[in-house]
Amino acid sequence: MNINNASFILLVCILCVCNPFVSAGQKNCVPESLYQRWELMAEADKKSNIQYKSNQIPLLNWPLRLASGFNYPNYYVINNYVDLDSGPGIEDYNCGAKSYNGHRGTDIDLDPFEWQMKNEGSVDVIAAAAGTIFDKDDGIFDENCNTSPCPSNTRGNYVIIQHDDGSRTLYYHIKRFSVTSKNIGDAVAQGEYLGKVGSSGCSSHPHLHFEVWNSQLDVVDPFAGSCNTTTTSSLWANQKPYNDTGINRIGTYSSVPVHPEGNGACPNTHNVNQKNHFTRGSSVYIQGNLRHTLSGIWAYIKVRDPNGLLVADLTYTPPTDDRYFLNHTFNTSLFSVPGKYTVTLNYFFATVTHDFWVTDGCPSNRTLSNETHNADRWYNASQTITSNSDSNAGVETLYNANNRITMTPGFSAKNRFRAYLGNACIN
Questions:
Q1: Which residues pair with 313 in a beta bridge?
Q2: Could you tell me if residue 225 is inside a domain?
Q3: Which site among 222, 290, 306, 366 is 20 to 30 Å from 402 CA-CA?
Q4: Rounded to whole angstroms, what are the CA distances from 53 to 48, 167, 232, 298?
């Protein structure tokens, strides 16, 4: 796993036979030709007698974040750690086997709908620590989903940051045309935008391959654990647990979302079918998305009506898994009160909620006379709505009709009233 310390001249002579980053027979998603490029660049830096400002690798922050405008509860699953076994075996920092032979970084997958998330650019790649741009590339196709076989010249979009001690962090598989516009040699701050998560290069799905090297270009696993001999302490400012259990999403859908991983299509596309407004008589599909589930930990899904009353209480016992889907289907005929419902998912000390709306049907014309709304309500009509009713403070009211909405004397909306024309009564 270590860089060979032979002289530059000797290195050039044997580079095609023994890449110092890789032991013989090992595989990795980053092509050997790129490691050769970075080795030569690093040797050129050494010859220029660069003086480093520090003598230790900086503490690292998490290299991903949700992009502005996205508020998912969470967005990732750790899929692979560094393989610390120098032979044909597999061993991660925790003495487990969450890796593959020769893997030199940490793979962080988008989840639960990775292709949709990649296309919408919902997750930013950011600098784990401050430094300068050592190398970068962009413009390479970013919808690969096949790693076998992986041609040796298959490049991906990436950024490498060099830190004050001469260590470097690699951010690989970035989305095409999303890489920072800064140039090689420019300074970047910790947490600064570097790109979007993609699936460029030798990649099976959208994810970030994050790799750390010390100033000698030895691969360093940033996670502290009993089987990690590359560092004596964690390089993370806040190291995530080995089984990073949590909730990634809870949502409502018009049909069960399709997760097509492994179906042979390239790229794999999701049929997400997310929907938040339902007419009574239609079906509401609820899915909760968990990551790194633990055996014996129960999950709970509860649904409450607009008045806060419990209308559904479901219990699940997920098996141990990297990602797990909780599915349940309701017929909205069971929801007797029109308005805004809230579904809550509880798992492992975390709670996530999602709101959806149910209307009481779709008459051609609806008249609301002298009603007082003390809870969130949604009223639908295929033609017109006429109302003189009162929406009390603290509740939300939604009118949706295709042709006309008329407020007659006596109508009052004290808080969060919305009226829409068009697209009414569509399931």
A1: 302
A2: no
A3: 306
A4: 15, 11, 21, 50
**Rounded to whole angstroms, how far apart are CA atoms 381 and 365?**
6
Beta strand segments in 127-238, E: 131-137, 157-162, 168-174, 187-188, 193-196, 207-213
Tokens of 419: 């009226």
Instruction: Identify whether residues 285 and 190 lie together within a single domain.
Output: no
Residues 424 and 402: beta-carbon distance below 8 Å? yes
- Pick the closest to residue 413 from 426, 386, 425, 395 (CA basis): 395
Which residues form the domain of 346? Answer: 246-260+271-359
| DSSP letter string, 63-123 | SEEEPTT---S--EEEEE-----SSSS---TTSS--S-TT--SEEEEE-SSHHHHHHHT-E
In whole angstroms, what is the distance from residue 284 CA to residue 250 CA?
13
pTM for this entry: 0.88
Of 254, 138, 239, the residue nearest 194 (C-alpha): 138
Which residue do the tokens 């008045």 mark?
307
Asked if pLDDT for residue 11 goes beyond 60, the answer is no
Question: Is residue 175 within 8 Å of 115, Cβ to Cβ?
Answer: no
6-10 average pLDDT score: 29
Determine the residue type at 414.
K
Distance CA 114, CA 313 (A): 29
Bridge-based pairing state of the strands 168-174 and 321-331: unpaired
CA pair distance 105, 63, nearest whole angstrom: 13
**Which among 359, 389, 412 is the end of a domain?**
359
Q: What is the total count of domains within the chain?
A: 3
Domain assignment present for 426: no
The pLDDT value recorded for residue 261 is 60
pLDDT in tens, 29-65: 898 889 999 999 988 887 777 788 888 999 999 999 9
CB-CB neighbours of 159 under 10 Å: 24
Residues 406 and 342 in one domain: no
Q: Determine whether 211 is exposed, middle or buried from the number of CB atoms within 10 Å of its CB (0-12, 13-18, 19+).
A: buried
